[in-house]
C-alpha cells in the first residue's frame, strides 16, 4: 500500500500530475495543511486542498486525510510531526512517498530531514521511503510581471487619449510600484523574525544508526543539557545506571561520545575549555532525543 504525504501550499499541478503521469499506485494521500500568510492566502490554500482531495479520489481512487501543521515556520515541531507520521505509516506496512514541492521551506526541509533520519534508523526499510520534489514547467510570477507591463503600456495610452485620467493615474501608479518592487526584490519581500532570529537553521542528519549505549548517552544529555566534561557525564551516567565508576567505564563513555561527536555521527558537539571538553547535544541530536519517546530508554546495553 502506498501512502503519499503531500504539503498543500499554492501549487496544484505538481502535487498531482507526477502521480498521474507516472501511473503510481496511490492508495492513500495525507494532505499537510497549515495557515500561511494573509487570510486570502489561507482561503486560496484551502480551496486547492479541497480540489486536490476531490481529484485524488476521482483520478487515482485514493482515500485522503488532512493533517494540520500547527506552525509552518516552527522547524522542530514540524520535524517531530513528520518523524511520527512517517514511522506510523511504515509500522502499518505502507510504502511512504514524501512530496516536498510546496509549503514553506521549513516544513519541506523538516519532512525531508525526518525521512532521511528514519532511513538511517530503519536501514532494512529504506526502499519503502521516498522523498521527492517536482520541478514546475514554468513559474507564473514572471508572466504576471509581463502582464503588468502590458497593462502599464495600455494605461499610458488611455491616459493620453481619453478622459479617464483619475482612474488611470491610480492604476498606473499602483502597477509601476508593483513592478519596481518585483524588479528590485523578487517574489518575496522582507525577512521575518522567527524565535529571535531571521535564520532557521536546518541540521544535517547522521548516516549511521544509533547503538543502545549511545542512546543512553543522548537521553542523558537531553535531560541535563550540558556537562562540563566527559568525565562529569560519565560519572552521572554511572549513577543513573547503578554501575561503578571505573577507568574502564569512563573509557567506554569517552569512546562512545567520540563516535557521537562531530567526527562521527554528529549528534554531540563539544567545546574545549582548559583540559576538558564541554559536551552537549547538537541540533540534530536534540531532534533525535525529542523524536524518541521516553519508553524507548529500556535498552540492552552493549
UniProtKB/TrEMBL annotation:
This protein's source sits in the domain of life called Archaea
Q: Name one GO molecular function term.
A: kinase activity
Gene3D superfamilies reported for this sequence: 3.40.50.11700
- Listed InterPro entries: DUF7776 (IPR056678), HFX_2341-like_N (IPR046260)
The record ties this protein, via Pfam families, to: DUF7776 (PF24989), HFX_2341_N (PF19810)
**Per the database record, which ranges form the DUF7776 domain?**
140-208
Keywords, A to Z?
Kinase, Transferase
Task: Indicate yes or no for the key word Cytoplasm.
Answer: no
Ranges where the HFX-2341-like N-terminal domain occurs: 2-139
Record protein name field: Aspartate kinase
Species, as recorded = Haloarcula limicola
